[in-house]
Design brief:
The protein is built from eight helices and no strands. By secondary structure, the protein is mainly alpha-helical. The protein folds into two domains: 106 residues, Rna Polymerase Sigma Factor, Chain: A (Orthogonal Bundle); 79 residues, Winged helix-like DNA-binding domain superfamily/Winged helix DNA-binding domain (Arc Repressor Mutant, subunit A). Helix 1 crosses helix 2 and helix 7 packs across helix 8. The longest helix is centred in the middle third of the chain and has 40 residues.
Length: 198
């Protein structure tokens, strides 16, 4: 059964996928709202089928829009629905794993899963390589805003929960999550640029 038959895609909009992709390339933030208008129900359908939790699904879809913004450019997908659907599903599966990990092992395992997307298959082959990676991360942290750096360190060094970070820094939990997501994306790109295999 196609997504279109399920009325998950809003085909009433006159804007084409190619036009939306061009907006991303032009860094026009209207691209996100157009994506949401056309594919919001489609994305929520995918996320909800994986997570079976409306709030988690909504957060996952919002994360997908942020991920799309970071991937286009350089990506230029011919089929935006398939490209976006793959992102949503991947994030939803990751969220489900984190939810299960939180129930089993608290923040430590959850944090490890969050960082896995930055380090991926990196193999720490000895102390020398470990030192190179450490120096690269330190340079990355030095280039962040103070707020982003504090949030990142609280989460990934001190293993603080999102709720505790939000409370201590007088921030909304959603802002903390978005800050962490964007910082992880920046770190992943930074490491790729410096030659680490992610």
């Amino acid at each position: 059964m196609t997504w279109e038959r399920m009325d998950s895609v809003d085909n009433t909009t006159s804007i084409t996928d190619a036009q939306i992709v061009d907006m991303y390339w032009q860094r026009n933030e209207t691209a996100i709202s157009e994506t949401q208008h056309k594919y919001g129900r489609y994305c929520n359908y995918i996320a909800d089928n994986v997570l079976h939790n409306a709030q988690d699904a909504e957060e996952c879809v919002n994360d997908a829009y942020n991920r799309l913004w970071t991937l286009i450019p350089p990506a230029k997908p011919e089929y935006l629905s398939a490209f976006l659907g793959k992102i949503v599903r991947g994030l939803a599966v990751d969220r489900r794993r984190m939810n299960r990990a939180a129930k089993r092992g608290g923040e430590t395992e959850t944090v490890a899963l969050e960082l896995a997307e930055c380090f991926g298959a990196y193999d720490d082959d000895g102390a020398e390589n470990g030192a190179v990676l450490r120096d690269s991360i330190n340079r990355f942290l030095a280039g962040l805003t103070k707020e982003a750096r504090v949030v990142f360190m609280r989460r990934y060094w001190y293993m603080s929960s999102v709720a505790d970070i939000a409370h201590d820094l007088d921030m909304g939990e959603s802002k903390v999550k978005v800050t962490l997501f964007r910082t992880r994306e920046k770190l992943r790109k930074h490491l790729e640029k410096e030659g680490f295999t992610i």
